[in-house]
Structures are given as C-alpha cells and as structure tokens.
C-alpha cells in the first residue's frame, strides 16, 4: 500500500483534519519546514506565531537518500510507532513526547526538539554534552528490560515479538552493516589510500566474527531495541541550555526484537568515529578525554538501571547469578556490534559526517584508525572483559 506523500503545502490542511491534535499549534498562523536530513523519511517542523511547534514524520515509499529506484514500504512507520509506544510507557523522559500514529497516512507526530542539536553535529563541532551518554544507557536498559522475558510473561513476550516485525529495515541493516562492507558491492566506497585496511576486512578470521555477530543480530530476539541508535538518533540541548534534559533518543524506525547489546553497540561505534575525528583535528584534551569516557558512562547507567529493574522480573528462574552472565554477554555483544557499526560507516553505503567532512589527509588518517581499532575490538572482544580493557585498547591505539 502506498499513501499520499505530505508536502509543506498540504501539512496545514492535514493537521486541520487531525482533531486529536487540536490545540497543539495554532493552525491559522503556522509555518512549515521540511527538515528531514536522515536517510529515509520526510520530517516537517510546524511552528505557529506563538512559537508552539510539533514534528510530523511520514515514511516515504522509497529510501530518501537513494531515491525512487530503491522502493521501501511505508509500513516502517508502524515499527517506529511500536518503538515510541513502548518507550513512552517504559522511559518517557528519554524520548520526545509522542502524539501517536495515524496509520492510514503512515504519519507520527512528536514533540519538536529542534531547539537542541543532533548529537553527531555537536560532536563534530567539538561540544561537550555532559550526561547524554547516561541517558542512552538508561533508555536502553528500561526499554530492553521492559519488553523482554525478564519483564513480560512468556505469552506476552511472544505476542510482543510477533507483533513487532520490521523485515525490510532489518534487511537493510543485515546488508549494510553485516554483509556489504565485507565483499565487493557497488555501494561500497573508500579512499584508495586505505585499500589494504578495507581488503583486510575480508580475511577469514574476521569474517567468522562478523558471521557470529550477524547471527546474533538475526536471532537474538531479547527485547524491542531501537535498531539504529547512533549519535544522529539523539538530540542534546543547545549550548548553554542548562535546563533542558541532557539528551533524548529519537528516530525509532529500525525498532525490532533483537539483542539488547545492539543499541549500546551502535552508540559505541559512533563514539569511535567521534574519537577519530577529534584526534585528527587535535581537539582540546578535555574534549578528547570526555569522548573517551562516554562508553563507560553509557554502560554504567545501563548497568545500574538494569540491576534496579531486575528486582521486578517476572520469573525467579532468572537468578542473580544469571544476571551477571547476561550483562557480560551483553557487553561483549555491544562492543562487537560497535566495531561493525564503525566499519560500515567507513566502507559501506551511508557514511557519517564525523569522517566525511574532514579534509583528505585527515579523512585517511581517521578512517584508517577506525578500521584498525574496530577490527581489533571485534576480534578481541571476548578478551575485552570490561570498560577499562576497552579504554586501554582504544586509548593505546589513539596515541600511536
Ligand atoms: C538506506 S538507509 C541507510 C542507513 O540509514 C540509517 O540511519 C541506517 O543506519 C541505515 O543503515
Ligand atoms: Mg535514522
């Protein structure tokens, strides 16, 4: 099914038809801007003369970054709506206020957070956002716990799992993260100066690790995960806005039942990109040290929140001893996924501005560092038992 695509011109009439949204903005005075800078969708900010605003997001029937030659079902907005429904209940303060799904038009409406900054942009500018990584950790713990068999009895878990298919977007992740960077593919692209590092990714020892993580992604249906929790899926407050919450997670269209470590990994992999950028730009030590603390900050918040929720689990067969084992497994998954998430942004389709906006010499240095470090993490993840071991590996490579 394809539904009519909204435009800047048709948004006011569309909102007028949405009596459930009456009063959120004054439709007599609104201006509308299309601001989608992601890879997939249309995003409109609607602002009235008094400054009240909201976001209208609609899935396009194709992949925006490529165009109509890559059709993609508009049903992905249903997956995003499921993600917001779950997070609105389980972790309302870590997401924008969600005003619901209009299924017929494949539209969701959200609080406008554009007074803040997408975190990737703030990182690219060298801005410190204290407390944002902890928000990510808490968010992942709450939604991860609350949609898992730890919080749901088996029938509810199975119902939730079966009600949450997102096959087309999972396919994109399987191809772009776990498959294409490790083979010849027309969408891959990299600077020839890093040929050796890229082609080295096809060595059997690494391919075996990629295969193990791919299967974990495909079959580890632990909880409803965000599915694309990179630094472009997080808003941080504008500089100097001390009253705003430290971060909000958005863009949940990749939500699916998967391993909880996948979301933490997406964040970790993108921290690696930010670290590479900061190093080649020789950013101030305070900024680089703060970047180096983000994985530990996110993990500590995740760990603390998960442990706090553990006492509410529905099945005492999930023992305290098992929790330790599960957390360790989740850490190992997370750093493995993080490595692959970093690699895909260097080699595959859909690059990251952290690296792409550097000059050529910086780009080559940063890309080479990311590939070498990410690979060392993926291959060595079982031995990187804690945050300190990872920090030592990453920091040691940064200093070289
Ligand atoms: C074709 S979509 C490309 C990428 O954009 C999203 O942010 C996901 O990361 C996806 O892999
Ligand atoms: Mg996105």
UniProtKB/TrEMBL annotation:
Q: What GO annotations for molecular function exist for this entry?
A: ATP binding; S-methyl-5-thioribose kinase activity
Q: Does ATP-binding show up as a keyword for this record?
A: yes
Which gene is transcribed and translated to give this protein? mtnK
Q: Which UniProt keywords apply?
A: ATP-binding, Kinase, Nucleotide-binding, Transferase
Q: Name one Pfam family in it.
A: APH
Query: NCBIfam families this protein is in?
Result: MTRK
In short, the EC number is 2.7.1.100
The keyword Kinase appears for this protein: yes
Organism superkingdom: Bacteria
Q: Which residues form the Aminoglycoside phosphotransferase domain?
A: 31-268
- Quaternary structure annotation from Swiss-Prot or TrEMBL: Homodimer.
User: By what name is this protein known?
Assistant: S-methyl-5-thioribose kinase
Q: Which family does it belong to?
A: Belongs to the methylthioribose kinase family.
Q: Which PANTHER family match?
A: METHYLTHIORIBOSE KINASE
* UniProt record, GO biological process: methionine biosynthetic process
What enzyme class is recorded for this protein? transferase
